[in-house]
């Protein structure tokens, strides 16, 4: 089907044709950088020198599981508590030494609206430790990390735990609004007659529940639908998407088999004898099997399927970030310096998933680096088509000039450096937890591979995006 069927008049009809230019709305947040003189990269680039050194000491996560499997009977704070406990066990940090805890999440459980606080108390942290919860769609734990960076950079804290959680096995389902209004009014009725009168107004259609959906409030469109249109706009075939998804699963399987996914901490499921120690969504298929699946969103001509999209996932993550001087004073060996970061935003209808394209050059410019200076790339994989669309946009002078206000293209990450331990398509994507996985994986890869700089990037609902630079801590 022609790409124009999927596209609105505001952006690409078919990739490469002229269309209306649109500048991204970008929010820059300053990251604390090194005050010491760092070794220049091979291209002579050095990070900015703007303040305290802030380091990633360690990052962990529970195994990421497909929704409705071994975690199905839990609550989200159970998983986040497990991640916090795993971080404490892995690092040996005293719970009393933590100045602040920040947790990201997307779909709130109403019983634990400040899930950071409830999970921290459940994990045995002091009731004197402040905790707060943030949300920024799929980059919620990215926001938790950068909020922690801000607290440390400003001198408010030296030691922060940042993390995130998502629990898709039991999302809130609401009563219809007419029924909610009736029941709330019924609760205030003072007489039996008044109550009976209100009950008599309830109609059968009131009983239809409001089911949650992974959809944009501003457009009413599901993210999968947007992913389909984006792939069509950039001329990305079903075969290309399936091949990339197969790459993700194959690399995740290889990394897991080699013991490289060391950020996982085993999780004992409360009330059961089950201890989960591995992700369960990594499944290496074949092109023939993947080709049999039907389109999931736009039928019958869409190209996004269950095989080339990230699946609904339960999981939690947590990382320990500190000022360098505090970490060394406490005897820790950091994994990485946390350098520059940016947040970006675009049109949530036509450029919903292009956050990495806009964020990547901005964070490189802030850090004084170039694409060739980066040794490790960790990009969030919402859909195979989303990743491939970003790579095509980043490799286009036309897109850079017409949409980004740049004179030339961003450039494409070399695939031999890109998500080589798998990504969200295979490992899973608990909305609020993925950011910590990205930054921890980048740091772990730098340590194992001997590179200097890593770049993480992610898209998010609302047309948002994030990118950050990490630097390997010297041995």
Annotation keywords:
eleven-stranded mixed beta sheet; globular; endoplasmic reticulum; 16% strand; single chain; two-stranded antiparallel ribbon; 475 residues
Fraction of residues in helix? 25-40%
* Overall 3D shape: globular
Backbone CA Rg: 23 Å
Chain-averaged pLDDT: 90
Q: Tally the beta strands.
A: 13
Structural class: alpha+beta
- Distance between the amino and carboxyl termini: 54 Å
Largest sheet, described in full?
Answer: 11 strands, mixed
Can you give a write-up of this model?
There is one protein chain. The protein has 475 residues and is an alpha+beta fold. The protein has 14 helices and 13 strands. It has helices spanning 76-91, 115-122, 140-153, 177-188, 192-199, 223-233, 238-257, 287-291, 324-329, 355-367, 384-394, 397-403, 424-427, 434-449, and strands at residues 25-29, 54-61, 65-66, 100-104, 131-134, 159-166, 267-268, 275-276, 313-323, 336-345, 376-379, 453-460, 464-472. Helix 4 (177-188) runs antiparallel to helix 5 and helix 6 packs across helix 11 (384-394). It is globular. The termini are far apart. 53% of the residues are buried. The model is unreliable at 1-42 (pLDDT under 50).
